[in-house]
Amino acid sequence: MRGSLGSGVADAIIINGDYLEVVEVKLRRAYDIRPHLVQVAFYCLLAEEILRKRCRKVHLCYPEGCVSRPMSLSLRESVFGLVEAAEKGIEELRKAKPKKYCQYCKYKRLCPFAHGESKNN
């Protein structure tokens, strides 16, 4: 699934009339499900953008059972806040000039920031 917010793969999208529900299946339960909840909410927003239907519920399914949550305003705001923070972080990387320590990084050959190539991207 691709949208202007990013990309990812939802395990299932349930279309129920004018509404969507997104399902994410996990092989094991995390101690803290909040990162999984944000992930499935992100997929929900992508599905809304692509399918032009409102997403009203998200489901996280673990081997022990499923956890369902409404796609609330606070959950939407959490996702958009994280996206905004990521965009700001990427922008800061684009402004950064390569440092001396870049010469020791094993990813230097692959990193566009180490060569200053991403300043205009």
Word description of this protein:
It is a single chain. The protein is of the alpha+beta class and 121 residues long. The protein has a domain at 2-71. It is built from two helices and six strands; from the N terminus they run ββββαββα. The chain has helices at 34-51, 73-95; strands at 2-3, 6-7, 12-16, 19-25, 54-62, 65-70. Strands 3-4-5-6 form a four-stranded mixed β-sheet, with helices on one face. A hairpin with a 2-residue loop joins strand 3 and strand 4 (19-25). The two termini are 23 Å apart. Residues 8-112 form the PD-(D/E)XK endonuclease-like domain.
Index terms:
121 residues, alpha+beta, 4-stranded mixed sheet, two-stranded antiparallel sheet, PDDEXK_AddAB-type, PD-(D/E)XK endonuclease-like domain-containing protein
Question: Care to give the gist of this entry?
Answer:
By secondary structure, this protein is of the alpha+beta class. The protein is built from two helices and six strands; from the N terminus they run ββββαββα. It has helices at residues 34-51, 73-95, and strands at 2-3, 6-7, 12-16, 19-25, 54-62, 65-70.
